[in-house]
Amino acid sequence: QVQLVESGGGLVQAGGSLRLSCAASGLTFSAYNMGWFRQAPGKEREFVAVILRSGRSTYSLDSVKGRFTISRDNAKNTVYLQMNSLKPEDTAVYYCAADFAPRASSWSRDPREYDYWGQGTQVTVSS
Questions:
Q1: How far is the CA of 107 from the CAs of 17, 34, 38, 76, in angstroms?
Q2: Is the N or the C terminus of the chain less surrounded, counting Cβ atoms within 10 Å?
Q3: Residue 67 — φ and ψ, nearest 5°?
Q4: Does 105 score more than 90 pLDDT?
Q5: Rounded Cα gap, residues 96 and 20, in angstroms
Q6: Mean pLDDT, all residues of the chain
Q7: Rg of the chain's alpha carbons, rounded to an integer?
C-alpha cells in the first residue's frame, strides 16, 4: 500500500531553520506531483508548496516565498521542504501529499485533489 512518512519537524526559535523530508513508497513516485500542506490549530489545511513530477517546476504560498524551498529526489522517492527564517506563524502540523499528475504541467493547491497523505509532523516556532 501507499505510504508517505514525514520527518524532520521539531521546536525551533524564530529565525531558525528546519528541513522536512517525506519518504514515499508503494507508488510510482515520478508520476505524482508532491505537495506540502500545513494545518494550525483551529484553522483549515493550507497549501504551502508543490513540486511537479519532473522536479522542474515549483509553486508556493506567497508568505513562504524566499524562505521555503521544495525539492525532490525521484531516485530516492523523497520530497523535501527546506524552511529558513521561520516565524511563529509558521507553527503547524506539516503534511506531505501526492497528487497523480497525468499531464506534465497541471497542478493543484486544493487538498481535495491529492490522493495520498502522510501522518504529519509538528513544527513549532517560538518567538
A1: 27, 9, 18, 22
A2: N
A3: -115, -40
A4: no
A5: 9
A6: 97
A7: 14
CA distance 124 to 104: 34
Grid coordinates given for 112: 481535495
What is the distance between the terminal CA atoms of the chain, rounded to a whole angstrom?
Answer: 40
**Overall average pLDDT of the 91-99 stretch:** 98
Distance (Å, rounded) from C-alpha 101 to C-alpha 52?
Answer: 8
Q: Are strands 10-13 and 121-126 parallel, antiparallel or unpaired?
A: parallel
Q: Would you list the DSSP string of the chain?
A: --EEEEE--EEEETT--EEEEEEEESS-GGGEEEEEEEE-TTS--EEEEEE-TTSS-EEE-GGGTTTEEEEEETTTTEEEEEE-S--GGG-EEEEEEEEE-SSTT-----GGG--EE---EEEEEE-
